[in-house]
Design a protein that fits this description.
Blueprint (H helix, E strand, L loop, with lengths): L21 H25 L18 E4 L4 E3 L7 E7 L6 H14 L3 H4 L2 E7 L7 H7 L8 E4 L2 H10 L4 E5 L6 E5 L2 E5 L5 E6 L4 H12 L3
Helix pairs in contact: 2-6
C-alpha cells in the first residue's frame, strides 16, 4: 500500500500497540462502522450524496484554527493555494485510522514531484485529550514527512469537526482503562480555494485517490 509502514514507537502507539486484545479491536471496528453510517446520514441531512447543498454550495469544510505537531499555530489559510486531503481520526485508533492514513500518503507516492507539491495531507485528531503536540510529533512521522498532524483545545477540535461534518464521541470500553473514539471515517479532498471536491471512504485505495488527484490537477 505504499512505502510507509506503521511501526512501533517508544513515544507513541502504533496500530498493534494500543488495543492488544482482540475483543477490543473488534469493538473498535464495530463503533467505527456505526460512525461511518452516521457520517453518511450527516451528508444526506442538508445536501446531496456528494456532500453539496442543493444550491451547489459545499456543505463540507470551513475555517479552523489548530496546532500542528511542531507546536505551530495554523489555520485553513495556512494551506490556501494547495489541495488538502483531510482525515479526522486519533493516534490510539486500533486499525481504521492507520489504514486510512497509510493509503492517503501512499497515494501521494504515486504522483510526480510537481503534483505532490500541490497537495498537503492533513490528519486532525478527534481525541485532543490524549493527542497532544508531543503525541502527534511521535505518531505523524510513522506515515512519512509530508503528513501534517493537527490538535487543539476541545472547542477548536469540535469547531473543525463541525465544519467538516464529522461525527465523534468517546466510547468507553467496559473493564478497560482505555477508551475508543467513535467517529466517522472519510478522507476529504478540498480544493485550493478551500471548497469541498469529493470524499473517499476509509477503504479507498491509493490508486483511486491518486487518480482523482490527477484529475483535479489536470495531469491525468
Amino acid at each position: 500500500m505504499g512505502r510507509h509502514d506503521v511501526r512501533r514507537s517508544d513515544k507513541g502507539p502504533a496500530a498493534d500497540q494500543v488495543m492488544p486484545r482482540r475483543w477490543i479491536v473488534l469493538a473498535g471496528a464495530l463503533v467505527l462502522a456505526v460512525a461511518g453510517l452516521v457520517g453518511v446520514a450527516a451528508f444526506l441531512t442538508d445536501g446531496s450524496a456528494d456532500g453539496s447543498r442543493g444550491s451547489g454550495v459545499a456543505a463540507i469544510g470551513g475555517p479552523f484554527r489548530l496546532t500542528d505537531q511542531n507546536g505551530n499555530r495554523v489555520t485553513n489559510e495556512t494551506f490556501a493555494g494547495r489541495y488538502m486531503l483531510v482525515y479526522f481520526g486519533y493516534t490510539y485508533c486500533p486499525d481504521i485510522c492507520p489504514l486510512s492514513l497509510q493509503n492517503m500518503v501512499a497515494a501521494l507516492d504515486e504522483l510526480d514531484p510537481a503534483e505532490v507539491d500541490a497537495v498537503v495531507p492533513i490528519f486532525i485528531t478527534v481525541d485532543p485529550e490524549r493527542d497532544t503536540v508531543d503525541q502527534l510529533a511521535s505518531y505523524v512521522p510513522l506515515f512519512g514527512e509530508r503528513l501534517v498532524g493537527l490538535t487543539g483545545t476541545d472547542a477548536e477540535i469540535k469547531a473543525a469537526a463541525r465544519a467538516y461534518r464529522v461525527y465523534f464521541a468517546k466510547a468507553e470500553v467496559e473493564g478497560s482503562a482505555d477508551y475508543l473514539m467513535d467517529h466517522s471515517s472519510f478522507i476529504y479532498l478540498m480544493g485550493p480555494d478551500g471548497t469541498y471536491r469529493t470524499h473517499f471512504g476509509h477503504d479507498a485505495t491509493p490508486d483511486e485517490i491518486a487518480a482523482r488527484l490527477r484529475t483535479e490537477l489536470g495531469t491525468s
